[in-house]
Design goal:
Shape: globular
Number of domains: 3
CATH superfamily of the largest domain: Type I PLP-dependent aspartate aminotransferase-like (Major domain)
Helix content: 25-40%
Radius of gyration: 23 Å
Structural class: alpha/beta
C-alpha cells in the first residue's frame, strides 16, 4: 500500500469550508459573534453552564491555573502519562508539579495513589488535582471530587482527549466529560488530530460564574468592559470633568495581568461546523475501537489494549506489545504512522531537574515501554483498518 495512514487526521467537509469562507467575508475576523456561538454550542454539547473559547488547549490550562490562583510554592498533583501541558500550566504560575502513578489497566491517574500522597502529608500541602481523560477514557470524577473535598482541593479536568466521553455516577446519572458536575474547570483542545478541529483552539468549561467571568478577563490581557466592576471613577474615565452620564463607550480597565489567548472567529466557525458532526465522528471511533479489540483480544503478543469501554471517546486506541520499537519501525515501512503517547512527563529533562527520575512511576514507565497508538480517526476506511491489523499480525507471526 502506497497511501500513508497516520495515527490521527482531521476530517474537513465542504460545510466546514463554507463556514470559514462565510466568516472571512463577514465584518469580524476576531472578537466577533462566532466566538459566542461556538462557546454556547460547545457548552450545550458537554452539558456545562459556561464555555470560554481560547487560542489552544495549553492556553486553556494556563487560564485555569491562573483563575484558581495557583502561585509559587503551590503543589498540584497530576499524571505522568499525558501531554506536557497538563503539568506545565502549574509551572507557568510558579507552582510545583507532583506526579502520581497510573492504574495499569485504565492508564488513568490512580486515585488510590493520589489518596496515599495526600494522607502522607499534612492537610494543606496540596492545592489541586489535574486528572486527565487519557486517550478519551473518562476519569471517575465523582470519586476524585469526594477526595478533593476531603482535602480542600480544586479539580481541573483535562478532557482534551474526551469530548463526547462520559461515565455514570453513583446515582446512575450520565456525566459527560467537561460537564462541570464534579470538576471546577475542564479543558478541551481543537488541534487537528482531536475530535473537533479548528486548526488550533481550546475551550474551558465550568459551572462557576465567578470563574467564568475571571476567565473572560484573563483571556484578554486582564481587561474588562464590565462597568459593574470598574475601579476608577467616571471623571478619570472621561478624562476632563466629573459627569453623571453613563460610562463612556470607549472605556475599559486592565485590572490584573492577563494574556492574549483569544480564538479567531474563523477558527470558531470551523469548530462549530465540526461540532455539528461530533456524534457521527464519535460513533465511528467506537466502531474502529471495537474492530481493533476483536482483532487483538486473543493474541499473545498483545499485553494490553484500550479495549471496549462504555463512555470512552477514543481519541487514541492504544495497544501494549512486545518489541514495540520493532513494530513501530515495521509499520512505518508499510506507511502506517502509529505514534507513542507519551514519554512519562516526569522523565522529561525539564522535570528531572526537580528530582524526578526513572523508577519513580513504575506503572507509567512500564506502560511507556510497550505502548503504541494505532490509527484512529473517523475517516479511516475499513480496508485501511484491516491493512493495519494484518500488518501488525504479520510482524509477529510472519
Amino acid at each position: 500500500m502506497s497511501k500513508i495512514i497516520p495515527y490521527g487526521k482531521q476530517d474537513i467537509k465542504q460545510e466546514d469550508i463554507d463556514a470559514v469562507i462565510e466568516t472571512l467575508q463577514s465584518d469580524f475576523l476576531t472578537q466577533g459573534p462566532k466566538i459566542v456561538e461556538f462557546e454556547n454550542a460547545f457548552a450545550e454539547y458537554v452539558g456545562s453552564k459556561y464555555g470560554v473559547a481560547v487560542a489552544n488547549g495549553t492556553a486553556a490550562l494556563h487560564l485555569c491555573t491562573l483563575s484558581l490562583g495557583v502561585k509559587s510554592g503551590d503543589k498540584v498533583i497530576t499524571t505522568p502519562i499525558t501531554f506536557a501541558a497538563s503539568a506545565n500550566c502549574v509551572r507557568y504560575c510558579g507552582g510545583e508539579v507532583v506526579f502520581s502513578d497510573i492504574d495499569p489497566e485504565t492508564y488513568l491517574l490512580d486515585i488510590n495513589k493520589v489518596r496515599f500522597l495526600l494522607e502522607s502529608s499534612p492537610k494543606g500541602t496540596y492545592q489541586g488535582i489535574i486528572p486527565v481523560d487519557f486517550g478519551g477514557r473518562p476519569v471517575d470524577l465523582e470519586e476524585f471530587k469526594k477526595l478533593a473535598d476531603e482535602f480542600d482541593l480544586w479539580i481541573i479536568e483535562d478532557a482534551c482527549h474526551a469530548p463526547g466521553g462520559y461515565f455514570y455516577d453513583s446515582q446512575e446519572k450520565k456525566q459527560s466529560c467537561g460537564s462541570g458536575s464534579y470538576a471546577d474547570l475542564a479543558i478541551f483542545s481543537f488541534h487537528p488530530v482531536k475530535h473537533i478541529a479548528a486548526g488550533e483552539g481550546g475551550m474551558v468549561t465550568t459551572n462557576d460564574e465567578a470563574l467564568y467571568k475571571r476567565l473572560l478577563k484573563l483571556r484578554t490581557h486582564g481587561i474588562t468592559k464590565d462597568d459593574s466592576t470598574f475601579v476608577n471613577d467616571k471623571a478619570l474615565a472621561y478624562g476632563d470633568r466629573l459627569v453623571e452620564e453613563d460610562w463612556p463607550g470607549w472605556y475599559m480597565e486592565m485590572q490584573e495581568l492577563g494574556y492574549n489567548y483569544r480564538l479567531t472567529d474563523f477558527q470558531a466557525a470551523l469548530g462549530k461546523s465540526q461540532l455539528s458532526r461530533a456524534s457521527e465522528g464519535l460513533k465511528r471511533r467506537r466502531e474502529i475501537a471495537n474492530m481493533y479489540y476483536e482483532a487483538f483480544k486473543d493474541l499473545d503478543f498483545i499485553k494490553g489494549q484500550s479495549g471496549v469501554v462504555e463512555g470512552h471517546a477514543y481519541h487514541l486506541y492504544v495497544i501494549e506489545v512486545e518489541d514495540r520499537t520493532g513494530l513501530y519501525n515495521y509499520l512505518r515501512s508499510k506507511n502506517i504512522f502509529a505514534q507513542i503517547h507519551y514519554l512519562p512527563v516526569h522523565l522529561m529533562p525539564y522535570y528531572q531537574q526537580f528530582g524526578w527520575k526513572e523508577q519513580d512511576m513504575a506503572y507509567a514507565e512500564a506502560y511507556y515501554s510497550r505502548c503504541l497508538s494505532l490509527p484512529m480517526f473517523p475517516s479511516l476506511l475499513d480496508e485501511d483498518l484491516e491493512y493495519v491489523i494484518n500488518s501488525i499480525s504479520k510482524f509477529y507471526y510472519g
